[in-house]
Structures are given as C-alpha cells and as structure tokens.
Amino acid sequence: MDEQEQADELAAAKQKAKNAGVTSGGDNNDSAKSSPKQNKIKEGTGKLLKQFWLDIPASFGFTILFIDLFYLLWKILPDWFGKPGHEWVQAEIAKTSPEEAKKVGDKISLVENLGCCCVNIPGCFVLLLLIVIIYAMLHPVEFGWMALTGG
Fold it and tell me: Which backbone phi and psi does 83 adopt, to 5 degrees?
C-alpha cells in the first residue's frame, strides 16, 4: 500500500469520525440522527441548564422557573433540548464511550428529576401560602370569619 492510499484511507476515516457528530453533553444516542447544528444547539442548551442548576442558591430559587421551562421545552422540542441529566457528563467520556455516557447521563437524569420535584413541591406550598396571605389582606372580614367559624 503506497502513501497515497494510506492518506486517502486516513482522510476517509477522519471524515467518517467528523460525520458521527460526537459532542459533549452526553446525549449521544441521537447524534447519528441529528445534524451537527442540532448537536451544537443541544450542547448549548445543556450548558444553560447546568448553569441554571448551579445558580439556584445565588438566585434564591428563581432559576427553578427556567429549569421547569427547560423540561417543558425538552418535551416539545427534543431536537433542540437534550435530555436533562446528560449535560453533566464530561465531554471526554462522551467522546470515548458514548454508551457509557448514556448510562451515566440516565442515572444523573433520575437524580435531577427527583431534585426538580423536591424543589418544586415546597415551592407550591409557598405559593399557596402567599395566595392565602394576599386573600387575607384583601378580604380581612371574610378571612377572619372563615378562621373563626372553620368554613
């Protein structure tokens, strides 16, 4: 085999690897079906979701709204938003072994879904408490009467 044939084989292998579209973010089971542009979009939205999780303490929980919006958009537009949990998988793992990255991403996804529920349930109670306080401020007589009579 001469040098030209080796160079052609190497170029073909590089093009094949480039067309495989392996990206960071761990959501590689769809990379063969998705275009490189969609993979970049998924990678970007995954980084955004990761940053939302990291910013929860600094934003006093306000970024939970954006995380919930991400989950909704992921269900509506799965080509643009990667599966939640896969954004935590390191790019090196995703490139070297996509199957392992998918397994790890699925495990993290379970924890992330539980975390989302654990944060949203107390948020619902706080929202309900705020509604009761606002009602009591707007209608003090009716609220006092309901509190005294039990209904």
Answer: -65, 130
Q: Which of 1-5, 29-33, 74-78, 129-133 shows the lowest per-residue confidence on average (mean pLDDT)? A: 29-33
Round to whole Å and give the CA distance between 76 and 81: 9
CA–CA gap between residue 18 and residue 106 (Å, rounded): 25
Q: Which of 99, 70, 65 is nearest to 83 (CA)?
A: 70
Task: Give per-residue pLDDT as tens, 56-78.
Answer: 899 988 899 999 999 999 999 98
Look at the pTM and tell me if it is higher than 0.70. Answer: no
For residue 92 the two structure tokens come to: 């090196």
Task: Quote the crossing angle between the two packed helices 36-54 and 64-76, to the nearest 10°.
Answer: 160
